[in-house]
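User: For documentation purposes, I need each entry recorded in a consistent format: the amino acid sequence on its own, followed directly by the corresponding structure tokens. There are two entries in this batch. Please keep commentary to a minimum and don't merge the entries.

Assistant: Recorded as requested. Entry 1:
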Amino acid sequence: MKVAIIGTVGVPANYGGFETLVEQLVRHNNNDDLQYAVYCSRKSYNDERWVYHGAKTEYIGLNANGIQSIPYDIVSLIKASRRSDVVLILGVSGCAFLPIFRLFSKKKLIINIDGLEHRRDKWNKWVKKFLKFSEKQAVKYGDVIVTDNKGITDYVTQEYGKPSELIAYGGDHVLTDINEEVTNKILREYGIAKNGYALAICRIEPENNVHLILEAFEKAHKKIVFIGNWQKSEFGRNLAERYKDSKYVKITPAVYDLNVLNVIRSNCSVYLHGHSAGGTNPSLVEAMFFRKPLIAYDVVYNRESTENKAAYFSTVDELVNLLNGSEDNYANGDSMLEIARRRYTWETVARQYESLY
């Protein structure tokens, strides 16, 4: 069976959660009867290759993100439909094209609708309307709809009266063995001490409540290392400027080296997750594998992902109270690891997707 995957930057993974999903699906394919083809943006790779971990790679000369993501997805879909038995579409930006696509193709489509993009604060009202329309077409014309969180599963049922398949993300790829010497070297480079800091990692956007978290740590006089793409937006630059001289907040640029990230994650005292939109967030799932206490923003998606066993906040004062209270209020590291091992391994995720094909 030939399965084409479209809608991402491509492989090797170098961008976000969907790219990591694709990377792990092809790496965990042990089925001789299953052949993946991954559609990649030529704009994002200097070196093109024919095959990646057994998957064929096909290149499209458009950007996979921004306004070009729409024609990128459409061109990928048309090409993929000619060469595959099943098309796995990740995200809905190109799904506005599906009413036309269905006029000439009955190809089987599995569509992961992601995290309700039309609700994200970063989009203006016209983009939100377009994304809502695309989502509607995805649900209408997709043969199987995949949701990554029960909160989104319930939304699809209530909004469209259609069932969906619940498949989350894996996170066990983050676990690597790093010796003590390397660990100490990385900690010195970042100027942090073992168990002497809280940690947050995310894209610096208002919907991730970055401003709320920073204000709470400043008020609580607690130290946090906050890793993100601070220079990407005015919102991020303003926050970085505001807290650059703080005794409690360490503004840190995005880190892409997995070994460095693992050291920083492994040695924090508590992990903060401020996402208020989306479904099962990859960075949350990854953090759960490090057996650290976890404090998350209080929305249904985060509660579902952590089975109501994390600590939760929705205001600055609630977070300050958690930070200044007894650590028993958020000593949930063992629970987070147990949930992660049970629900969020890539082997489990890969088999779930294969059952859909």
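Entry 2:
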Amino acid sequence: MLYDFLKRALDIIVSAVSLVFLSPLVLIIALAITLDSKGPIFAETPKRAGKTGKLFNIYKFRSMVENAQEILDNNPQLLEEYKKNNYKIFKDPRVTRVGKFIRKYSLDEFPQIVNILKGEMSMVGPRAYYPYELEEQSMKYPQSRKYVKIILSGKPGLTGVWQVSGRSNINFEKRVEMDAKYVERRSILYDFWIMLKTIPAVLSGRGAV
């Protein structure tokens, strides 16, 4: 299909060029993370659901303290807030000083360029959801199941329509509906439009947690 070919070509070109030109920023972020707190440079996160539901390891800069997932699992209060707020914690105590900055401007997502080059993700697409997030939220919002099925027919993206429309301010039900409509629309011009909208959305930091 022409769309799939052009989309893959766009992914490779844009991600490769970004990796080359932004490599100094990558080194600065990596150094800042190392100096700020103990732990690895990259985050240890549960696998995400990719195209057809295939699980993959997503690459992100570490923005939280070491063993953040273990801390969450053993803290009932944090875990309750995490699930209540669509798998987000506002003013999360696990986030480091450098982490607050890179999360606000989505710099922690930059390593996902490697996922794009590997073909696991795309520059533009639906959110890369956790499998348990899709399962639990689909039970909470049964009407969203039809959207989840559509979402999993495409690759998740580094950015997407919901990211440029409020990020964490949008609940699960609305988010999956927006993602599904994106997948159904399938347009290179639409992808370009979303990428352009991503720049002011990231700079504003709106909806970031």
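Summary note for entry 2:
DSSP finds ten helices and four strands in the chain.
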